[in-house]
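Protocol step 4 of 5: obtain the predicted structure for the target chain.
Materials: sequence only (see below). No template structures provided, no constraints applied. The aim of this step is simply to have a reference model before the mutagenesis design in step 5. Sequence pasted as it appears in the construct record:
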Amino acid sequence: MSEEHRDDTAARLGMWLFLFTEILLFGGLFVLYSVYESDYAEAFSAGSHHLNLVLGTINTAILLTGSFCVACSLSAVRYGKRRLAVGLLWGGVATGAIFLFNKYLEWSAEIGRGVYPGSPQLAHVERGEAIFYSLYYVTLGLHGLHVLIGSTVLATMAVWVQKGKVNPERFVALENGGLYWHLVDIVWIFIFPLYYLLL
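Step 4 output (structure tokens):
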């Protein structure tokens, strides 16, 4: 029986190309944000001050913790510490779940006070503030979807490590999954100051 074909270089290159498309996606949203923010600086600042800075800060710490877990899991796999790697990956999944739960709490509060795309309340605020909230929901909703996908990828990697599909001799899948998760975190590092820290 022939050995299964592997091309780790192509797998890594393919992942980097995919991540580039993701950077273009979020980069476009950040450029759009910058254009509107320059036109409606005061309105964007007013919208930012209504966001939950505490939850935003907590979510930043949570995602950074998740990235640390994922990076350590790769080292654990390379050193043959399967059980540790699995635990770290499930830790990464947990950080994603906590992030999404916090985002649910935050959005529930926003929607509860009538602030959501197309709401009657936003129809009566300054145009710049309405644009701010539209960009907020689109950008953070898209990012939340990526957190959900990333958490699913990490859970899959945890199962694969447990089953030995990912091991010290074969760990490119975990590398690629980790890169995706790190991109999700990096995007949040841009989102947090743009939306939560406007003066």
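Step 4 remarks: The chain has a mean pLDDT of 93. Helices lie at 8-39, 41-49, 53-78, 82-112, 120-123, 127-163, 172-196.
Proceed to step 5.
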